[in-house]
Amino acid sequence: MSATASALYLDLLASAEGVDGKTEMASAIARAAVSRVMHGRGALHVRRPVVLQAAGLRWYVPARDNSFASTKPGHDNNSVMPELRRLLRARPQPACIDIGANLGFVSVPLAHEHPDRCFVAIEPVPWLADAIERTAQLNHLGNLTVVARALANTDSIELAIPTVGGVHLTTLSSAAGQASPEAKGRTLSRCAVRAITLDAVLRELALDPRDVSCVKIDVEGLEPEVLATGATALSARPPVLFEALGAEGRERTEHVLRGFGYTKFRALDAQNFAAE
Fold first, then answer.
1. Which residue intervals define the domain Methyltransferase FkbM in the entry (predicted)?
2. Strand partners, 266
3. For 40-184, where are the alpha helices, taking DSSP H only?
């Protein structure tokens, strides 16, 4: 963790509010966490849940998880957010699907910016899905629906979540046996979660595939397997923005999407791509 990232997190913690009547001394935990990280002994986190202010929104941050320290919420950390905003302006369909939503870094700001649209945030890690729900409530986002499930062709899967000093590095989580390169060699915490197909998600939400404006997916290398569960959901070929970890990952994802009728592919940046 760089000094710049540590300083950013310290600034975010300056806005920390207590949860459930407990007071969190932001400066104290920031100094302790930053010290540990800078000496290679941990990952930035909070010891108890807090609510932080960032980009004009209130964010619920779960304890002992480094997700909030992994990005700058509400800002364009890569090319995905600008492209999603462009698509939402250009396309009239009402729904946007965020697969691998983490803490809602994509779906929460967009739901705030587009109260006339509906957003579906799909996140399998239980405490992250709960955090998105709480963040949506804090910001009165009635147009954001959270699906606390993994996407797979089975009833359940086991997630492997790397840990450092008891802190979950959920940004590196994956299905057990398919760890991302960054997660290899780390201690893993295992978590069984319920699974559902993307097609079944749309059926449960009574969402017509023709009403899907765009799809964003970031699931640590499992994009091909996850998208393969959505043949009907993607039948109207909404633009799909996907992350790919290397050339092989991009080729595998594009192969699945070509099977669904997608013909145009382009790079948004080194790791993110668009399909139409």
1. 98-248
2. 274
3. 80-90, 107-113, 126-138
